[in-house]
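Hi,

I'm pasting everything inline rather than attaching a file, because the server keeps stripping attachments. The sequence lines come first, and each chain or strand is labelled.
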Amino acid sequence: MEITGSLATIGYGLAAIGPGIGVGLIFGMGVQAIARQPEARGMLQTQMIFGFAVVEALAILGFVLALIQQ
Amino acid sequence: MHSAAQEEGCHIFNDFGCGFQAPTTELFFPAPWVEFGLPGTSGITKYLLVLIVATLVSMAFWYFTTRNPKVVPTRAQSVAELFVAFVRDQITRNTMGKAGDKYIPLMVTLFIFIFTMNVMGLIPGLQLPVTSNLAFPAVLALFIYLLWNAVGIRRHGVGAHFKARMVPAGVPGYLLPVVVPIEAISNFVIRPFTHAVRLFAVMFAGHLLLAVFAAAGFYMFNPMSPMGPVLGGVSVLYSGIALFGFLVFTVFELFIMAVQAYVFVLLASVYIGEAMEGAH
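And the predicted assembly:
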């Protein structure tokens, strides 16, 4: 069987696994924390989005590498 | 064969065997209108036009909402105040405290400007998010990078500023040769890079996704199929599904555009806040 296409796409898929788990953990824990302490919602949301942005950077690096490796 | 297919319009269930051509990244390299011939430049392209439109729209927004401010806000003014209050309560107060209030104008302007540049990808006729070209987010990220370094150096001096960013508190001495290079690279190289590339990559991928949906919907629309009216009807059904997906993803993309503008501004104020704070 012959498979054609860019191997970099598979690399991007692998690079997205870790950030996927991380983003899930961040938002899951964040929602739990808001449920336990609704009055801290504003601060928790800011921290959630910040953590999400930092974790997401790994997936974005993978995406960019997949595009430049053509 | 292939040229004949393109002349007649390539659609599903055709009888000359042409396949679906997905849109490529050439979408983001429009043909330049004026070329300077300098290496590493793209000349004047559609991006400049869309950027000018986005700038004028965001300037007009502030002009028409705040040209005649009143104590009891008019309807337009209260929209502008909504944005300012949102940025103050959700972004600057949480990351910089009361001392960050002087950065609210910058952050609100950045938010509106980036959001307008992103939304240009959905305006019919323009349909090109300015931020899908790395050059534009890179300049904004470079500006924020210079700003937080300047803020830190002015507050704490050159030595204390770089020490605070490179030497985390509470790290034992024998680990410093490992920690300091990691911190230096992550704070001074990776950080501005990801700050710019995050916005770029998300807008790039989102716009490409919408383009694939639109192109697929057009490809699958073939009611005059030579293979008979039944397959022609099926192709219209397929095309309808693609159109529905396109509309759903357009709404989703609008949400992503707002979130990315928010994330960019949030990170900018986190960086400035850290620089103001100095060492922990």
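Residues 2-13+43-277 of chain B form one domain.

If the labels don't parse on your end, tell me and I'll reformat.
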